[in-house]
Design goal:
This protein is α+β, with helices and mostly antiparallel strands. Helix content is 18%, strand content 33%. It is built from 2 helices and 4 strands, in the order ββαββα. A 4-stranded antiparallel β-sheet has the order 2-1-3-4. It is globular and about 35 Å long.
């Protein structure tokens, strides 16, 4: 089972222009990952969604198979 799964995540700040569109990411236990991209490409937005600071308009984030937004306090 994956430690973290981001499935079909879409997010926009103005509900018009998506910053993230249909993003998928799977990380397994013990993996080391580097996220690279241009300024304004959505890296921080993705981290904000994974950490729970922002909610995606579409898609889900699973932490060890559990929906992050349903199980967090």
């Amino acid at each position: 089972m994956a430690a973290l799964e981001v499935k079909d995540v879409t997010f926009s700040y103005d509900n018009v222009t998506p910053v993230l569109k249909n993003v998928d990411l799977t990380l397994n236990d013990g993996e080391l990952v580097c996220l690279l991209g241009v300024s304004g490409g959505g890296k921080t937005t993705l981290f904000n969604i994974i950490s729970g600071l922002n909610r995606p308009q579409q898609g889900t984030v699973l932490l060890h198979g559990n929906d992050w937004y349903r199980t967090r306090p």
